[in-house]
């Protein structure tokens, strides 16, 4: 049972709901039903949510595969924390500024690092399980 992945998938799901609620709140308060209506704050909120979906969902899938192929729990937890922290930092950074920010930089780095580590593990797991 992939219990570790379940924890991080649940946390990411809650983060996605928070980001979606922010978009809905802004749409309602700005009376913009579709698109961003030219509002930069709404545009950044939409992108913060969209970027989290684009990165978090595949990362959680890689985390699940790693756990199912018996990755060390410390690797699964480290990558899970990096995914969550990375997505939170990125969302905060993007919500505050469309330009360069610590949150966007650090969040991207953590997410990319976790995806790289999980991808490397999953390729190694294939080789270990199939080719040996």
Structure report:
This protein has 132 residues and is mostly helical. It has a single domain, classed as Four Helix Bundle (Hemerythrin (Met), subunit A). It contains 4 helices and no strands. α1 (3-30) runs antiparallel to α2 and α2 (40-68) packs antiparallel against α3 (73-96). The protein starts with a helix and ends with a helix. The mean pLDDT is 95.
Concise description?
With 132 residues, the chain is mainly alpha-helical. It has helices at residues 3-30, 40-68, 73-96, 102-131.
| Oligomeric form | single chain
Strand content: under 5%
**Stretches with pLDDT under 50, minimum 5 residues:** none
Please estimate the helix content. Answer: over 70%
- Tell me about the biggest sheet? none
Please, how many helices? 4
CATH fold-level label: Four Helix Bundle (Hemerythrin (Met), subunit A)
Radius of gyration, in Å, reads 17 Å
> What's the count of strands?
0
CATH superfamily: Membrane associated eicosanoid/glutathione metabolism-like domain
Overall number of domains: 1
SSE run: HHHH
Name of the CATH architecture:
Up-down Bundle
Which whole number gives the mean pLDDT?
95
Could you name the CATH class? Mainly Alpha
């Amino acid at each position: 049972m992939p219990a570790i992945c379940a924890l991080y998938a649940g946390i990411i799901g809650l983060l996605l709901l928070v980001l979606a609620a922010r978009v809905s709140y802004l749409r309602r308060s700005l009376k913009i039903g579709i698109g961003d209506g030219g509002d930069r704050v709404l545009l950044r909120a939409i992108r913060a949510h969209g970027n989290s979906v684009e990165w978090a969902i595949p990362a959680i899938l890689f985390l699940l595969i790693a756990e199912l192929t018996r990755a060390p729990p410390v690797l699964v937890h480290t990558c899970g924390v990096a995914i969550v922290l990375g997505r939170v930092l990125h969302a905060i950074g993007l919500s505050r500024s469309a330009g360069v920010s610590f949150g966007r930089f650090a969040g991207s780095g953590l997410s990319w690092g976790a995806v790289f580590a999980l991808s490397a593990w999953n390729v190694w797991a294939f080789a270990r399980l199939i080719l040996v």
